[in-house]
DNA sequence: GTGCGAATGTGACAAGCGTCACCCGGGGGT
DNA sequence: ACCCCCGGGTGACGCTTGTCACATTCGCAC
């Protein structure tokens, strides 16, 4: 019997996935969590074999939970199930030592199958994504990422400067760097590109 | 027996929702569709009582399907199930005569309940959203919407001008109008605001 | 110490952006 | 015939962006 905790913020999807997994005779859904913090608490209380979690959740993200599990050396496997086919996410997930990484647009049967594989100690990584992941590295450094994120929210160079205690000019330099590295024409395009790759 | 067709582009969610609905004794899932065009074909072939559909799908969106159903006066109810709590979407859905509009972060049991209500001829609209929907009207006109959408993709005023066969200056005027109406500081913020409200 | 390389700043320039006041031409009312 | 509204355009103004070449400072390696 594989004992599972399910974390996913959209209630309807959570309920549906739970129903789906409960149809399997060798899988038992111990509980579900609507956000990252609840998931973390339930994880410690229920001690499941496997945590199945989304990435984007209020509070803790799925990636952050995976990092904590690894840091505390808990005997719990983590499977990420997410909408986003972003190589950067997969990469960070692998760095956090997750057992599986599936996309929500993979067939539903894959989930139970992946659960069994991971429970046996194997890995279940979405195949197309696995290829892309190591092909293209994130060219941005921390500052560039940070500045690009704020610029993408509509803030001007001046706004960002005050917010980060840097000078107006420096911000523009970083932004220019980022735009160049990404081969974009302006901050908006750069933001979109970076976001799409999961480099945020 | 309520005969249902389910349209949703994410395979895993599709499978899970299908499993969920099949647990109900009075509901039968006739089939599922992975995008809007398939959904439209299956709709005509299977003649279900109710179509449960996502909004954002490749090909036809759920809203467009609802509009077609109404235009052709098919005896099929439509229930929209979506992630997006955007008042503008609900409004367009109501204009298209849908029977129900639920959010994916409503509890899973609501879906079956809504199906029954709509099948009986009632309406199932997410309550909080219903309030907001009529409170704030979309202030943008067609040109502004169009221009703002392109600007949000990172295109410059010049790019947009050539694309729409308008002058450089006119584009900037429209953009300025849109920014003003939305109370934004620049195109990026304006784009984000409009998008968030579902005015796109 | 000397030297190198990050990280941050500066100043200048051209291009793009946001705003505004105003112009033009074609429908519709009346 | 008149006016007025509407979609579109013009030109000018000042500010923001994107780029680049060149400082400054600090820390680390040797």
Write a structural description.
The structure is a homodimer of 200-residue chains. Chain A is an alpha/beta fold. Chain A folds into two domains: 2-134, Rossmann fold; 142-197, Winged helix-like DNA-binding domain superfamily/Winged helix DNA-binding domain (Arc Repressor Mutant, subunit A, Orthogonal Bundle), CATH 1.10.10. Chain A has ten helices and six strands, in the order E-H-E-H-E-H-E-H-E-H-E-H-H-H-H-H. Chain A has helices at residues 11-22, 36-46, 62-71, 87-95, 109-119, 127-135, 142-152, 157-164, 168-182, 187-197; strands at residues 2-7, 27-33, 50-53, 77-82, 100-103, 124-125. Chain A has a six-stranded parallel β-sheet with strand order 2-1-3-4-5-6, with helices on both faces. The longest helix of chain A is centred in the last third of the chain and has 15 residues, at 168-182. Chain A is elongated. The A-B interface holds A 9-20, 23, 81, 83, 102-111, 151-154, 156, 184-190, 192 and B 9-20, 23, 81, 83, 102-111, 151-154, 156, 184-192. The structure holds a DNA duplex (30 and 30 nucleotides).
Give the integer mean of the pLDDT values of chain A: 92
Per CATH, the class of the largest domain in chain A reads Alpha Beta
CATH superfamily of the largest domain in chain A: Response regulator
Q: Into which percentage range does the β-strand content of chain A fall?
A: 5-15%
Largest interface: A-B, 38 and 39 residues
- Number of discrete domains of chain A: 2
Terminal CA distance of chain A reads 39 Å
What series of H and E elements makes up the topology of chain A? EHEHEHEHEHEHHHHH
Protein name (chains A, B): LuxR family two component transcriptional regulator
GO molecular function, one term (chains A, B): DNA binding
Organism (chains A, B): Luteibacter rhizovicinus
Pfam families (chains A, B): GerE, Response_reg
């Amino acid at each position: 019997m594989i004992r599972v905790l399910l974390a996913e913020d959209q209630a309807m999807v959570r309920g549906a996935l739970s129903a789906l997994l409960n149809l399997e005779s060798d899988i038992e859904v111990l509980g579900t969590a609507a956000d990252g913090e609840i998931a973390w608490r339930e994880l410690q209380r229920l001690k499941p074999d496997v945590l199945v979690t989304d990435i984007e959740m209020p509070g803790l993200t799925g990636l952050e939970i995976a990092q904590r599990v690894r840091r505390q050396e808990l005997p719990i496997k983590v499977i990420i199930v997410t909408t986003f086919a972003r190589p950067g996410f997969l990469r960070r997930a692998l760095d956090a030592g997750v057992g599986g990484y599936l996309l929500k647009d993979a067939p539903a049967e894959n989930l139970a199958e992946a659960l069994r594989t991971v429970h046996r100690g194997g890995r279940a990584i979405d195949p197309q994504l696995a290829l892309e992941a190591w092909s293209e590295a994130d060219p941005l450094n921390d500052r560039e990422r940070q500045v690009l994120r704020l610029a993408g929210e509509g803030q001007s160079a001046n706004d960002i400067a005050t917010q980060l205690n840097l000078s107006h000019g420096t911000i523009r330099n970083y932004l220019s760097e980022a735009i160049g590295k990404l081969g974009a024409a302006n901050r908006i395009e750069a933001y979109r590109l970076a976001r799409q790759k999961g480099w945020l």
